[in-house]
Design goal:
The protein has 537 residues and is of the alpha+beta class. Helix content is 52%, strand content 8%. Strands 1, 4, 5, 8 and 9 form a 5-stranded antiparallel beta sheet that branches. Strands 7-6-10-11 form a 4-stranded antiparallel beta sheet, with no helix packed on it.
């Protein structure tokens, strides 16, 4: 009776959080209300009118980035009003979260506690950053996870297994990694059905949308700029992490490919072993994490698999795995980048905080979600004595030690790959839209930042949640301006532009501007003063 009460209470909490989250999503400003769903609706309506699908751009400039088969799946959205579509979409996301929780619990090895596990998992998922991002943006990612997970867990009827993975891959390409997993796990028929479903979906799209299919497979697929600002901290892919580590664009593709190949190979090998042990839930989630690692772009709403991995670790035996799972769930709920204390942290620690989700996925793929415990138990059953710590715990300890050393060493700080110093035309456009007057408290008003010559500069900061923009005015004493994005980082020369009437300005955008230090120099190239460091205060 107690168990039933706890399960019911958990699902009540889940429903409450879902209703509150959905209501908040619908109450956001119109321009930011389920913005990705708005792209889907607009793109589908454009295709229905006979115009090119991949030439569509929403009011904020966002294009349609998915394969053409995804547009066919979303086709009914073009027939409904967007206000109705928003409500139905949010309800569908909440239902998808419940399906994921129940499906994963059904394949969890501890049968007596499956209902309780499903309730806890549902609550954790609905509160996590990936699902909250799905709700906020009206994303399709959660449905791709549902399709893939049902097939990977062998919940779908035997003669149809693999078809859902093929359909999911036709909507978003990353589930194709599950086809490789099916082959390695001995599920050859499932792999064949998945490949056939994927190819068949592409053919259907080519027949119904021939021009759009040609455009996607020959051009749009390879245009990474279409998916958003790759340098944004919201992109936690390994490719983005390498960029923020300072690896140049000329070498990054090779390094990324080698790293992804090794990480995915290790994850697939571990997943195959888990599948052979009968641990289907762990195997499926591990491959799902590998799809995140393999993707060149990994936004928050893509990372549902990481939350599932954290829950499986928390529900495992062994203090090391439980601690790792708890940390992972915190990371996937809160942003550790916000915990950075600018002047008191090393560049290495800033890097770890800013890229902790991408690093965590790589560690999961390499260390795994289990298997070592089964080996340990088998050894005990056969009177074989192992060391005090399992192989998994040793691997986790080694990974944590490596990250800690990296964070504490005085490593060269990573540059901000998203830093863009605006030229004169861009700066003129920025300031043409601004009407700011800086007062000195004595009735004087100046936009040149001088305020009677007492101040060197003034600046304002804006942010859309992914990028930061800085606009400022400098006084007549400033002949040259420099800026560094992290303690000890190389200095960037900030161009100062004269807009006329003594209005000397600068502007730039970036992604890692939690810390920025300005250095102002006079006409004799002497440092005048260090203005405040923290752009956010």
């Amino acid at each position: 009776m107690l168990k039933d009460w706890r399960v019911n209470a958990l699902w009540l909490v889940f429903a409450t959080v879902a209703v509150v989250s959905g209501t908040l999503a619908l109450r956001r400003p119109e321009f930011d209300r389920l913005a990705d769903l708005h792209v889907y609706v607009g793109a589908v309506r454009q295709a229905q009118s006979g115009r090119p699908l991949y030439e569509y751009a929403a009011d904020n400039g966002d294009p349609f980035t998915y394969p053409p088969f995804a547009a066919l799946v979303l086709w009914p959205l073009g027939w409904m009003s967007e206000s109705v579509t928003r409500v139905l979409w949010l309800v569908a996301i909440v239902a998808a979260v419940a399906v994921i929780a129940v499906a994963l619990a059904a394949r969890w090895e501890h049968a007596p506690r499956r209902q309780l596990f499903a309730g806890v998992l549902a609550c954790v998922l609905i509160a996590s950053a990936p699902v909250q991002s799905d709700l906020r943006f009206g994303q399709i990612s959660i449905f791709v996870v549902v399709l893939t997970l049902l097939d990977a867990l062998e919940i779908t009827p035997a003669r149809w297994r693999g078809v859902l993975v093929g359909l999911a891959a036709a909507i978003k390409l990353t589930p194709l990694l599950f086809v490789v997993f099916f082959l390695l796990a001995g599920r050859r028929r499932d792999a064949l059905r998945a490949a056939a479903a994927f190819a068949g979906s592409a053919v259907v799209a080519a027949v119904l949308l021939p021009a759009d299919s040609l455009q996607f497979w020959t051009a749009s697929l390879f245009s990474t700029a279409r998916v958003g600002d790759m340098a944004s901290l919201g992109n936690q892919s390994l490719h983005a992490v390498l960029g923020r580590a300072g690896i140049g664009a000329e070498h990054r593709p090779v390094v990324w490919l080698l790293l992804v190949a090794g990480i995915c190979a290790l994850a697939l090998w571990r997943a195959r072993n888990l599948a052979r042990e009968g641990r289907r839930a762990h195997a499926a989630v591990l491959v799902g994490c590998a799809t995140i690692a393999a993707s060149p772009v990994s936004w928050t709403h893509h990372q549902v698999w990481t939350v599932l991995a954290g829950m499986l670790l928390v529900a495992s035996a062994g203090s090391a795995r439980r601690a790792a799972g708890a940390f992972l769930l915190v990371v996937m709920t809160l942003s550790l980048a916000n915990l950075t204390i600018e002047s008191a942290t090393t560049p290495g620690l800033q890097f770890v905080f800013s890229n902790v989700r991408g690093i965590s996925v790589a560690v999961i793929c390499c260390v795994g979600l289990g298997g070592a415990l089964n080996a340990r138990q088998a050894a005990r059953d056969n009177d074989v004595v192992l060391g005090a710590r399992s192989v998994w715990a040793r691997g986790l300890t080694s990974a944590a030690a490596g990250i800690a050393v990296f964070a504490l060493l005085p490593l060269p700080p990573s540059v901000d790959p998203g830093l863009r110093l605006n030229d004169l035309d861009q700066t003129r456009q920025v300031f043409s839209q601004m009407h700011v007057c800086w007062g000195d408290g004595a009735g004087e008003c100046s936009r040149d930042g001088s305020q009677g010559g007492r101040l060197l500069l003034n600046y304002s900061v804006g942010s859309d949640g992914q990028r930061s923009s800085v606009e400022g005015w400098v006084g007549p004493r400033v002949a040259r301006l420099s800026m560094r994005t992290a303690p000890g980082a190389p200095l960037h020369a900030v161009p100062i532009w004269d807009l006329g009437d003594g209005e000397r300005v600068f502007s730039f955008t970036g992604t890692n501007l939690h810390y920025a230090q300005f250095l102002a120099y006079d006409a004799d190239d002497r440092l005048i003063e260090n203005p405040p460091r923290d752009l956010w205060k």
